[in-house]
Design brief:
Helix content: 55-70%
Number of helices: 10
Structural class: mainly alpha
Radius of gyration: 19 Å
Distance between the termini: 26 Å
Strand content: under 5%
Mean pLDDT: 88
Length: 272
């Protein structure tokens, strides 16, 4: 994947927007719709647990691979784009260290709880796998390429991608007593805000995806290993810890500039 430069004075490329939008829609909705089919659920549940957890993320990664090739074909001869994985070893390692370190407020709160339940599945499938695949799909492919290749306004795109990210966590097969509409509350709203802040951080880091992968994975890890709502601070404490973690990363990376990308990798242009 090439290095990114800012696309200045270009109108929105709606053919690229349509292509990326269709791929994201398929990657978000198709696994949920398939899960609503009894026969599909029965087959998947007969497979090993690791396969069950990875089948939908793997499907999204295949969509990203196909989508990247199609988007790059449309982008031929224009400014190069990146999905933030090839930023250089030094920058990648710094991004991982900074992202993980900024998740530590959630660990601090978790240590004050009475719950500590680390398992391989919580670490691999609750933290690391979603942290990697969701950031590749929703931040690098969806948000990043809409800004870099489709020339969409960065702030509008960040808001839209955050909204889609939040809605992607709505369960179309809710447990008994729950409804789809009933899920559209503070929890989904918080995930949507988190998606917006991840996008802000990704763009502000000059497309260093390793930073947001580490932050996202670290936050998921502490959330799954501890019951952050069972502390003296309750639900508000858990919310504050999440906001503080992402806010710290934004402060140090975006405002303080502690993470430097390669010299010839340009920041995204701040178009409204």
């Amino acid at each position: 994947m090439g290095k990114v430069t800012a696309n200045e004075n270009q109108g929105v490329r709606w053919n690229v927007v349509l292509l990326i939008g269709v791929i994201v829609l398929i990657g978000t909705l198709l696994p949920k719709l398939m899960w609503m089919i009894d026969g599909y659920r029965s087959v998947v549940r007969s497979w090993p647990v690791d396969v069950q957890y990875l089948i939908h993320p793997t499907f999204r990664m295949l969509l990203v691979a196909v989508g990247w090739a199609m988007v790059m074909r449309l982008n031929r001869g224009r400014s190069p784009a990146t999905m933030g994985l090839r930023v250089g070893w030094g920058v990648a390692i710094n991004g991982v260290l900074i992202g993980f370190a900024c998740s530590l407020p959630m660990l601090a709160l978790g240590l004050a709880s009475d719950s500590f339940t680390p398992t391989r599945y919580e670490i691999m499938h609750g933290a690391i796998a979603p942290g990697i695949t969701e950031e590749i799909f929703y931040r690098a492919f969806f948000f990043g390429l809409l800004v870099q290749v489709a020339c969409c306004p960065i702030w509008t795109t960040a808001i839209v991608s955050g909204l889609v990210f939040g809605l992607a966590h709505v369960d179309l097969t809710p447990d008994e007593g729950q409804t789809i509409i009933g899920q559209l509350g503070p929890w989904i709203a918080m995930i949507g805000v988190g998606g917006f802040m991840y996008a802000w951080l990704y763009g502000g880091s000059r497309w260093n995806l390793w930073l947001v992968i580490a932050l996202h994975s670290g936050m998921n890890l502490w959330w799954d290993m501890f019951d952050l709502t069972q502390t003296p601070l309750g639900n508000w404490g858990a919310t504050v810890a999440r906001v503080l973690s992402v806010g710290l990363a934004i402060y140090f990376v975006v405002f303080r500039g502690v993470l430097r990308a390669e010299p010839n990798v340009a920041s995204p242009d701040d178009r409204s």
